Amino acid sequence: MYTGATGMIMNQHRMDVVANNLANVDKTGFKSDEAIFNAFPEMLIQRTRENGLGWVPPGSFDMAPIVGNLGMGVEFQESFTRFEQGAVKTTDNPFDFMLQDRTQERPAFFVVLTDRGERLTRSGSFILDSAGRLVTPDGFPLMGENGPIQIARHNVQVRENGEVWINARIGNEADAPANEYSERTGDWILLDKIQLRTVEFPRELKKEGNSFYTVTPESGPMRPFSDFPGEDEPIVLRGALEASNVNVVRAMVDMIEVQRQYEANQKSVTTHDQLLGKLINEVAR
């Protein structure tokens, strides 16, 4: 544990991360962050003689004993995102989707076309716009392998592998009317497949906006799961959403711990300042 000003700065970063986690505890698909710090090398302290030189006379007692190690402080390195699976929230909304990962080491993402280009997201809450496209609440279309997915409201089946099927006799126009063929399974044809992508190093993804992730040179580009032999694609659950993976109890405990450590470091700085003031006054007399 680092004390003084270094400890205050460290705990300020920790508090920012914990507070952000708690603020997004109800956000669909939110992944919690954790502050990572890098410690500077410690310095060995040794008592010296009055002339400032350490001295150990041969055959005698130690005139310059080791006092101990002095911590040189820490620096904030990064905010690390934890991609553990969130809980399932059943909504029964036909346009809500959840990704159930087969492995925690390589999470899957939906691909959304934003005004800044394609972005990854874990939030599967979509609606139909006036053109019949599946879009986010902000109006950004969900991408299929053939482009934005366009369907009729009552004419769609989404399977666990992400395939989107429609009834050929109804079509996928936004205003296509329902008819007697709506429930006939023999007329269903494959329209498209939801883009499910991942990256080589998910830890290096950068959070952007409300619920998006953007790739970085360190994370590598978006890649399909077929690029990773032996790894199965995730399961797409329809009528369900992924809850935030923030552990509220743990986050509250962390917040209390950070607050107490900050107050202890603040008191340490105040005490040192008072002692230094007394020393200066004594020397000045």
Verbal overview:
This protein has helices at residues 4-23, 248-284; strands spanning 33-39, 43-46, 66-70, 74-81, 88-90, 97-100, 109-114, 117-121, 127-128, 134-135, 143-144, 147-148, 157-158, 163-167, 188-193, 196-198, 206-208, 212-214, 223-224, 235-238, 240-242. The protein is an alpha+beta fold and 285 residues long. The longest helix is centred in the last third of the chain and has 37 residues, at 248-284. The mean pLDDT is 83.
Summarize the structure.
The chain has 2 helices and 21 strands. It is α+β, with helices and mostly antiparallel strands. The protein folds into 2 domains: 4-81 and 247-284, no CATH class; 88-242, no CATH class.
Protein topology:
Blueprint lengths: L3 H20 L9 E7 L3 E4 L19 E5 L3 E8 L6 E3 L6 E4 L8 E6 L2 E5 L5 E2 L5 E2 L7 E2 L2 E2 L8 E2 L4 E5 L20 E6 L2 E3 L7 E3 L3 E3 L8 E2 L10 E4 L1 E3 L5 H37 L1
Antiparallel strand pairs: 1-4, 2-3, 5-21, 6-20, 7-8, 7-16, 8-18, 9-10, 11-12, 13-14, 14-15, 16-19, 17-18
Helix pairs in contact: 1-2
